[in-house]
Write a structure and sequence with these properties.
The protein is α+β, with helices and mostly antiparallel strands. About 30% of the residues lie in helices and about 25% in strands.
Length: about 170
């Protein structure tokens, strides 16, 4: 979407409106996060989390500063308002807020590297005559190593608009 439309900000979320299109993003906030955690010059990666990646509470790394980790995860949580592509990884890392290890921090920094390569991403809405309700769902069927619980998720579209999404244990 071009910047020729009406632009406004709400709680740091940029909203661009043009004709029958709306694009919401947090590019400035994402850049601020990268600077805050000294990742603005990092090498981008293609995915926020490695495929089939597993994290344990008692990981083999040494513990890291929980306050630093909580600030990082909290910053990523706010970014999920316009970035559903990072929800799974942020949810996974949120489980380790009390005793984070180096592997947890490395995984959080991978999400930052992913954000670095996808700064222009957000949520795009387009008015269309197509009003089909389409839903997708998935589950990993008891893949959590510690609890043997499943992680499931869904996304629903109404036309081209994402109206609901979730990922939870």
């Amino acid at each position: 979407m071009t910047d020729m439309g009406l632009m406004s900000y709400f709680l740091g979320i940029k909203v661009l409106r043009k004709d029958d299109e709306i694009f919401i993003s947090q590019m400035k906030y994402a850049n601020d996060i990268l600077k805050k955690f000294q990742m603005e010059h990092s090498k981008p990666v293609l995915t926020p989390v490695e495929e089939k990646f597993k994290l344990l509470g008692e990981d083999k790394g040494r513990t890291v500063n929980p306050t630093y980790y909580k600030i990082l995860i909290g910053s990523l949580r706010y970014l999920t308002a316009t970035r559903p592509d990072i929800v799974f990884g942020v949810r996974l890392l949120s489980r380790f807020m009390e005793e984070p290890c180096t592997n947890h921090l490395q995984t959080a920094k991978r999400i930052l590297r992913y954000i670095k390569g996808t700064l222009n991403d957000g949520i795009y809405y387009q008015n269309t005559n197509e009003i089909n309700l389409v839903g997708y769902t998935n589950s990993d069927w008891a893949e959590d190593i510690e609890t043997r619980k499943s992680i499931s998720g869904f996304v629903f579209h109404l036309g081209s608009i994402v109206i609901s999404w979730s990922s939870k244990k």
